[in-house]
Design goal:
This protein is an alpha/beta fold. It has 2 domains: 116 residues, Response regulator (Rossmann fold, 3-Layer(aba) Sandwich), CATH 3.40.50.2300; 74 residues, Arc Repressor Mutant, subunit A (Orthogonal Bundle), CATH 1.10.10.10. Helix content is 55%, strand content 12%. The protein has a 5-stranded parallel beta sheet with strand order 2-1-3-4-5, with helices on both faces. The protein is elongated.
């Protein structure tokens, strides 16, 4: 990988932009920052961009709309979204639209850097996608039917109360199933669990 790969950072919070730019610069990347998705689209040649890091919630065009715009125009860049607590369902929607990954705030620097490197190095060929799907399916193989039902509800962006109503169980029981899902899959966060589920095609 080129040590000076340009990473485009989009966030309406100047403190976050400055922090991310510093992190990227000291780790061998070149950061270019923008205060909005609209500013990014005005200033950049989409065919030259390799990697974009964007907040989900921003004034004007949000992160999901940006992903859809980039994919719609056939831009070759990968997009990593930064999401606040409670935005997981939005992040899942964005991944379905074509985002490469999403990172929940607050996050360790190492998590973001690994996401960037993985996204830049990811192969998009069918063989790699098949391997990823089989690996995710193997991780989910030990789930009970009810655990799988709860997981599908989470992927759909439903809150515990709605999942409980749909499955005719108590919200507390849903919490137990969620804990089981984390334990059985080895997921360290809800975002990681969502990535496994989506890779398996749920």
């Amino acid at each position: 990988m080129n040590d000076k790969t340009v990473i485009h950072v989009i966030d309406d919070d100047q403190g976050m932009r400055d922090s991310l730019a510093f992190l990227l610069d000291v780790n061998g990347f070149k950061a270019q920052v923008y205060e909005s998705a609209d500013a990014f689209l005005r200033q950049i040649d989409l065919n030259s961009a390799r990697c974009v890091i964007s907040d989900i919630r921003m004034p004007g065009m949000n992160g999901i709309e940006l992903v859809k715009r980039l994919k719609g125009e056939g831009a070759p860049c990968v997009v990593i979204l930064i999401t606040g607590h409670g935005d997981v369902s939005l992040a899942v929607e964005a991944m379905k639209a074509g985002a490469a990954d999403f990172i929940e705030k607050p996050f360790d620097d190492s998590v973001l850097l690994e996401a960037i490197r993985s996204a830049l190095n990811a192969r998009t060929d069918t063989q790699a996608e098949d391997a990823a799907r089989k690996e995710a399916e193997a991780v989910l193989a030990d789930l009970s039917p009810r655990e799988r039902d709860v997981l599908q509800g989470l992927v759909a962006g439903k809150i515990n109360k709605v999942i409980a109503h749909d499955l005719k169980i108590s919200p507390r029981t849903v919490e137990v199933y969620r804990a089981n899902l984390m334990a059985k899959t080895g997921a360290r966060s809800m975002s990681e669990l969502m990535r496994i589920a989506m890779a398996a095609g749920l």
